[in-house]
Automatic annotation (TrEMBL):
Stated name of the protein: Coatomer subunit zeta
The keyword Repeat appears for this protein: no
Domain AP complex mu/sigma subunit intervals: 18-156
GO BP term (any one): intracellular protein transport
UniProt GO cellular component terms: COPI vesicle coat; Golgi membrane
Location of this chain's protein in the cell: Cytoplasm; Golgi apparatus membrane; Cytoplasmic vesicle, COPI-coated vesicle membrane
Alphabetized UniProt keyword annotations: Cytoplasm, Cytoplasmic vesicle, ER-Golgi transport, Golgi apparatus, Membrane, Protein transport, Transport
Family according to the record: Belongs to the adaptor complexes small subunit family.
Function: The coatomer is a cytosolic protein complex that binds to dilysine motifs and reversibly associates with Golgi non-clathrin-coated vesicles, which further mediate biosynthetic protein transport from the ER, via the Golgi up to the trans Golgi network. Coatomer complex is required for budding from Golgi membranes, and is essential for the retrograde Golgi-to-ER transport of dilysine-tagged proteins. The zeta subunit may be involved in regulating the coat assembly and, hence, the rate of biosynthetic protein transport due to its association-dissociation properties with the coatomer complex.
Main location: cytoplasm
Recorded superkingdom: Eukaryota
Species this protein is from: Trichoplusia ni
Complexes and interactors: Oligomeric complex that consists of at least the alpha, beta, beta', gamma, delta, epsilon and zeta subunits.
Keyword Cell inner membrane among record annotations: no
Amino acid sequence: MVHTTMEGSLFEPTLYLVKGMCILDNDGNRILAKYYDKDVLPTAKEQKAFEKNLFNKTHRANAEIIMLEGLTCVYKSNVDLFFYVMGSSHENELILQSVLNALYESVSILLRRNVERRVLLDNLDAVMLAFDEICDGGVILDSDPTSIVGRAALRTEDVPLGEQTVAQVLQSAKEQLKWSLLK
């Protein structure tokens, strides 16, 4: 199926819904960020400039959505952290909002409801895994915080095989098989 825009040019259908996700501190500095579209903000310098601009436009606002530099950005703040999910200008805001909620709730569960910069930095590995469990290459994989945290926790716990229960071994094998089939 081929879609056309109002101008008549063609574009391919895509599953790439998310252009990027990031977490900034209360000074607008990057704590964690992933960008999935190489045509949008391809260099680290452009990404940091965009993040600074995004933070400056949103850190005092009460809204939850902003259009910036051709991207739809949804965001949420808590204590000293700002969570952002970016999509294209024609992306469905509700889908982006569900990704943002999955990100925030997953981080909240991982950090035991203590969502602040210091605790996040102490658990950055688990939060990075949660990013990967939510979105892969811009494609949304999951938006259920409980299952995201469950898979992220499985990957961070690296318990020796001899110390795992049969259920843990089977669950780990099931997850590995699922991911090998998805690649």
